Amino acid sequence: MDDAGAIPGTNRNLLPPEVQPGVRVCPDAPGVARAAARLFVEWAWQSIAGEGVFFVALSGGNTPRELYRVLATEEFRTQVDWAKVHLFWGDERAVPPDHPESNYGMARRELLVRVPIPLANVHRMQAEQASLGRAAQDYEETLRRYLPLDARGFPRLHLIFLGLGPDGHTASLFPGARKVRATSRWVSTPVHPKFGSRRMTLTLPVLNAAHRVLFLVTGAEKAAALRDVLDGTHDPPLPAQLVTVPHGRREFLVDEAAASLLSPNAAGQASPRTEESPEDR
């Protein structure tokens, strides 16, 4: 499929060029949100045209909040066949869905009530349950019910949105946590190392099984972490460094503040876009 003009309403010429493979720098956070919305529309069309469905895992945070607001505008929501979109979550706090810190609750307020997506297509993590372990098992069953599996037996989403913490965490995979890599689980229930609160999160093998992972990174406070994920070496690696998507594509949309510490070659020299393998589509 050609990039520019191939999909109604999208045009990759409106996106900033790649400053290194898979990394695009936008002027500011609103620019990141609009670029992410364009890519959401493009990838939805691709997946629905090819497979009749688009499986997406959403994330929480301020940058995704702005993305959801953009997707809910008439400009973008009318370009998506929402009846064929299924939404999942990458992680969730152990709070009720109407709690201010609920990732699902934020997405519902900003996006779900504003687009014509069937309720049956929204698959939230029920992390408010008394037994978080049981809730994680239930969510694994939900993933098993809807998603195809990769060669290693992990569920394969078309797109996973991820953020990046200043400490290099992503989803609710935290530095220093045990079994970040060595797990056969699809969903785990880590404890936040600073606050001691429980979370529910997709595991690293599920993130790496995706067709595409899109990191949204904004703000100067994320600059050091972004530099380390893209160019640094850590032992052990930061959780976000471990998201390599070996049979898909890992991409970053970042603003200039977050990109401020990238090397000159990364921050100022565009690289040619590589062709995707059939597995990436």
Rough outline:
globular
CATH architecture: 3-Layer(aba) Sandwich
CATH domain class: Alpha Beta
The count of DSSP E runs of length 2 or more, i.e. the number of strands, is 10
Question: How would a textbook summarize the main sheet?
Answer: 7 strands, mixed
Q: What structural class do you assign from the helix and strand content?
A: alpha/beta
Sequence stretches where pLDDT stays below 50 over 5 or more residues: 1-7, 266-281
Q: How far is the N terminus from the C terminus?
A: 10 Å
Rg result: 18 Å
Q: What is the topology, as strand order, of the major beta sheet?
A: 1-2-10-9-6-3-4
What is the averaged pLDDT score? 89
CATH topology: Rossmann fold
Our count of domains comes out at 1
Order of helices and strands: EEHEHHEEHHEEEHEHEH
Share in helix? 25-40%
Beta-strand residue fraction: 15-25%
How many alpha or pi helices?
8
Element layout with pairings:
Elements: E1 18-20, E2 23-26, H1 29-51, E3 54-58, H2 62-71, H3 74-77, E4 85-89, E5 91-93, H4 103-110, H5 132-146, E6 159-162, E7 187-188, E8 199-202, H6 204-208, E9 212-217, H7 223-231, E10 249-255, H8 264-268
Parallel strand pairs: 2-10, 3-4, 3-6, 6-9, 9-10
Antiparallel strand pairs: 1-2, 5-8, 7-8
Helix pairs in contact: 1-2
